[in-house]
């Protein structure tokens, strides 16, 4: 499994601002029997004259294929990103506490889920191991970890007398699936090279998202809306809640992963980079929301399509992570920006007709929980 991270304070805050984002990644790698199968470039990329040294360090985002079926090695990972809410006293502390607390709690979940399935190594120890957890079990563990982080941030806020809020995205990658949860407007995406697509995995807990869902603004307005900095859900708070019992509503989901997928987790500084957003919004409304002005906004804002292209065109995950930060800063660098990119080249190839995986899609058939229906 390959991953890369990159984080930046943002051009507008470079002189006197602080970075309130935080990331944490924990990777579990296991090899047995056959040894590490590794990766190799396919025949098309092997002739491009690039020796690929840098790609060997970070994992190539687009052109690596597994040399086998992955039976000799496997990976599990925990990925966490938090964005401290700007304008509050201790957003940086909130994001630090959130990422470390979530990662600490979920690392054991990831390892336990991986070791509960020894069949791939041909080791007959199933009877002495706990059963393989269901998707719903791991989603619940993600939600519980975020709630635990929420309580830790509240405890810090109460002890310090400061307000401390942060958004959180957290995921467990194990067994060819991503089990994830989120609070706030930091985002997770899947970028798939085989299908040349980007799929949003999260929907923002934010005012602009509510306005879009209510059809009060269109997709172009959402790119530059003046209220883009207002979230409707976060971990932490003022410390007035009881840290022992406080909770937060965590949205969760599970999606299958394939060899050509890159998991991208990012703070909102990537898509909310435009420093002239308020002016562009005003021009768009005054122009009657016409196509010409819409094109201007799409050209100046950072769109999902540009994010996809930046990831797929990068020679490595490191280059993709750095390129996304550069893209946001070129468009204004309005806010702090953090990215985490992860890819597992030992997974099966993307099928011709993969299940729907974007936010709001029905879960894959194998991930649906059995429920008791009404008798009729």
Automatic annotation (TrEMBL):
The record ties this protein, via CDD domains, to: PP2Cc
Output the Gene Ontology terms for molecular function. protein serine/threonine phosphatase activity
Q: Where is the PPM-type phosphatase domain?
A: 57-344
Q: What is the protein named?
A: PP2C family protein-serine/threonine phosphatase
Lineage summary: Archaea, Methanobacteriati, Methanobacteriota, Stenosarchaea group, Halobacteria
Transmembrane region(s): none
| Compositionally biased region (Acidic residues) | 45-60
User: Signal peptide position in this chain?
Assistant: none
Q: Where is the composition biased (Basic and acidic residues)?
A: 34-44, 365-376
Enzyme class, broadest EC rank:
hydrolase
Q: Where is this region: Disordered?
A: 34-72, 344-376
According to its UniProt record, the EC number is: 3.1.3.16
Domain of life of the organism encoding this protein: Archaea
Q: Which UniProt keywords apply?
A: Hydrolase
Q: Which Pfam families match?
A: PP2C_2
Stored InterPro entries: PP2C, PPM-type-like_dom_sf, PPM-type_phosphatase-like_dom
